[in-house]
Design a protein that fits this description.
47% helix, single chain, elongated, Double Stranded RNA Binding Domain, 5-stranded parallel β-sheet, alpha/beta, 7 strands, Rossmann fold, two-stranded antiparallel sheet
Length: 210
C-alpha cells in the first residue's frame, strides 16, 4: 500500500529522462502543475519539441548524465532502455530525489496515477501499478459521472458566505455543510438545477441558525 499525496511542484525543477510518447504525457502533467521541467532525451516527439521551442520546458537532446538531476525535486525515467532507467534511478537515490520509472524493472518511489480534473477538482486513481488499463477505465467512468467545475466554484464562494454568517460558531458551519452537501444536491447539480440548489442553500442557512 502506498501513501496517496498531491505534490506542490510550482517553480520546482523536475526532470524527465526520455522524450518519447510516455515522456510527453509526464511532461504535460508537470507543466500543468507549473513545475520547471527539464527533459533529457536524444529523440523527442513533436509535442516536446514544440514546448521546447515555446520556452515551456528546457530540452537537452543528448544522452542522460547523472548531473542532469542536480537541484531537482523529482525525476521520471521514461525511456525504452532498462539500463538507462536504472542509471537514472541510481543517480536519484544518491541525491535523495523522488524517482519514478516507466518500466517494471525499476523500483519507483511514487506512481503517476490516472487523473480526472474538473477545474480545481482532482481525482487520482491508482491500482498500485498492477493494472493501468483498469485505472484508465475507472477514470473514464468518473469523468462521465462528474460535472464540470461549476459546482465546486459555487461551494468555494459559499464557504465565504457561511463563514461570514457563522464567524464564531464552527459547530453551526459543520451542521450547515452536513445538511447541504448530500447525494440530493449532487443530483440537482448533474441536472443543472442551480436555482433549486440556491433555494436549498437558503433553507440550510436558516436551519443552521438554531
Amino acid at each position: 500500500m502506498r501513501y496517496p499525496v498531491f505534490l506542490k511542484l510550482e517553480n520546482k525543477l523536475c526532470v524527465v529522462v526520455g522524450a518519447g510518447r510516455v515522456a510527453e504525457r509526464r511532461v504535460r502533467g508537470l507543466c500543468d502543475a507549473s513545475a520547471r521541467v527539464r527533459v533529457v532525451g536524444v529523440t523527442a516527439t513533436e509535442g516536446i519539441l514544440k514546448w521546447a521551442d515555446e520556452g515551456a520546458i528546457h530540452l537537452c537532446q543528448r544522452a542522460f548524465e547523472p548531473s542532469d538531476l542536480d537541484g531537482s525535486a523529482l525525476v521520471i525515467a521514461a525511456t525504452d532502455h532498462v539500463d538507462v532507467n536504472r542509471a537514472v534511478q541510481a543517480a536519484a537515490k544518491c541525491r535523495g530525489i523522488l524517482f519514478c520509472g516507466a518500466d517494471r524493472h525499476t523500483d519507483s518511489d511514487f506512481i503517476v496515477p490516472a487523473v480526472v480534473q474538473r477545474g480545481d477538482l482532482q481525482v487520482a486513481i491508482s491500482t498500485g501499478g498492477k493494472s493501468p488499463a483498469y485505472a484508465a477505465l475507472l477514470r473514464r467512468e468518473i469523468e462521465a459521472f462528474l460535472e464540470d467545475g461549476e459546482l465546486l466554484d459555487l461551494l468555494t464562494d459559499l464557504r465565504r458566505r457561511v463563514y461570514a454568517r457563522f464567524p464564531n460558531a464552527p459547530e453551526r458551519r459543520q451542521a450547515f455543510w452536513q445538511q447541504l452537501v448530500t447525494d440530493d444536491m449532487l443530483a440537482l447539480a448533474r441536472k443543472g438545477k442551480w436555482a433549486e440548489i440556491e433555494e436549498r442553500i437558503e433553507v440550510c442557512l436558516s436551519s443552521s441558525l438554531g
